[in-house]
Amino acid sequence: MKRIPDRAVQPAQPSDGQALRGTRKRIELKALAKINLGLDVLGRRENGYHDVRMVMQSIYLYDDVKIERTKNPGVEVSTNLYFLPTDENNIAYKAAKMLIEEFQINEGVVITLDKHIPVAAGMAGGSSNAAAVLFGMNKMFGLGLSQKELMERGVKLGADVPYCIMRGTVLAEGIGEELTVLPAMPKCTVLVAKPAISVSTKVVYEALDSKEIVEHPDIDALISGLEKGSLHEVAAAMGNVLEDVTIPMYPVIEEIKNEMKAQGALNAMMSGSGPTVFGLFENKAQARKAQDKIREKALAKQVYVTNIHGARRNEYGA
Ligand SMILES: C[C@](O)(CO)[C@H](O)COP(=O)(O)OP(=O)(O)OC[C@H]1O[C@@H](n2ccc(N)nc2=O)[C@H](O)[C@@H]1O
Ligand SMILES: Nc1ncnc2c1ncn2[C@@H]1O[C@H](COP(=O)(O)OP(=O)(O)OP(=O)(O)O)[C@@H](O)[C@H]1O
């Protein structure tokens, strides 16, 4: 694969002890999941990260993120999923700690994550939690950071975090942090199915390095479909190069795609590094039928019928 030299991410502006103006004691936010309508990889950087060209879309599947401000300094995280870390290995914790240190905040936060987005699934669950914490604490403590400044901090936590701050229908380039708003995705029903396997994003990108990419998805055709507002053109242009790595490891992904298409999906594809598969449907009844079939055949237990979320900029949370 072509090697692309590292491009430095703009350093965040250090704070100069800005007074904390916010007064809110508690904020509740919806941290949305994403799907990748298109995912192309253009090359590998010297630090191992890859240059990508992706079309990202928010969906109406979310984690509830509650942030409470406390007089006791420090960060406390709790979650409904027993297997997730609640210490500094939780990305929501890292996001809070980052702002507390930079702005020398001498109060603390208690973060409660009520998780519904499948974990290690290619749906940016963790990234979306981190984005919600950055957004929420910026408001709560009156830090005065613009969306761009929040995104500059977000990329230090993960490549998907800036997108999770922006949300909606977006072209993501660079390592995923160079964002351009696209025309909104036409409304449709989205069926999401996560088979009972967890996939490491790092392992998938690394495995791609030893492969020749045979066919790149036509991201421009996808954008052109969005410009025309044509759901059919968007569906026809969907493509994800990471499928070539993850599907041979887990053939159940292909089986789920086939089941969705057999039940009337306009198209079905793996999201991100997988293993979650999503299908786009014009007809909600067909999506429900596909959901039943996938469960009946025990292809996946976590199967959800949901919608495109037309998140607009700055329209974050409940
Ligand atoms: C697969 C996607 O979810 C598609 O949206 C993203 O590209 C991944 O975003 P993410 O999970 O937020 O990624 P990070 O947490 O920053 O990185 C996890 C690992 O994925 C690999 N990685 C990630 C993004 C990128 N552009 N190139 C990479 O090679 C790196 O090996 C990294 O160690
Ligand atoms: N708040 C969090 N929510 C989910 N996972 C978390 C969180 N914090 C840390 N993790 C760890 O991160 C790993 C990946 O989680 P996540 O669900 O974000 O992956 P993903 O869906 O593949 O994300 P992406 O699409 O951005 O690659 C998990 O195995 C988990 O242990």
UniProtKB/TrEMBL annotation:
Keyword Heme (UniProt): no
Enzyme class (EC, first level): transferase
Region annotated Disordered, chain positions: 1-20
E.C. code: 2.7.1.148
Residues in GHMP kinase N-terminal domain copies: 90-168
Domain GHMP kinase C-terminal residue range list: 223-297
Example GO biological process: terpenoid biosynthetic process
Residues forming the catalytic site: 34, 160
Alphabetical keyword list: ATP-binding, Isoprene biosynthesis, Kinase, Nucleotide-binding, Transferase
Record flagged with keyword Aminoacyl-tRNA synthetase: no
InterPro entries in alphabetical order: GHMP_kinase_C_dom, GHMP_kinase_C_sf, GHMP_kinase_N_dom, IspE, Ribosomal_Su5_D2-typ_SF, Ribsml_uS5_D2-typ_fold_subgr
Catalytic activity from the UniProt record: 4-CDP-2-C-methyl-D-erythritol + ATP = 4-CDP-2-C-methyl-D-erythritol 2-phosphate + ADP + H(+)
Pathway: Isoprenoid biosynthesis; isopentenyl diphosphate biosynthesis via DXP pathway; isopentenyl diphosphate from 1-deoxy-D-xylulose 5-phosphate: step 3/6
Membrane-spanning intervals of the chain: none
Listed GO MF terms: 4-(cytidine 5'-diphospho)-2-C-methyl-D-erythritol kinase activity; ATP binding
Binding site for ATP: 118-128
HAMAP family documented for this protein: IspE (MF_00061)
Family statement: Belongs to the GHMP kinase family. IspE subfamily.
NCBIfam families: ispE, PRK14608.1
Primary role: Catalyzes the phosphorylation of the position 2 hydroxy group of 4-diphosphocytidyl-2C-methyl-D-erythritol.
Protein name per Swiss-Prot or TrEMBL: 4-diphosphocytidyl-2-C-methyl-D-erythritol kinase
Organism (species): Faecalicatena orotica
Lineage: Bacteria, Bacillati, Bacillota, Clostridia, Lachnospirales
Chain's gene name: ispE
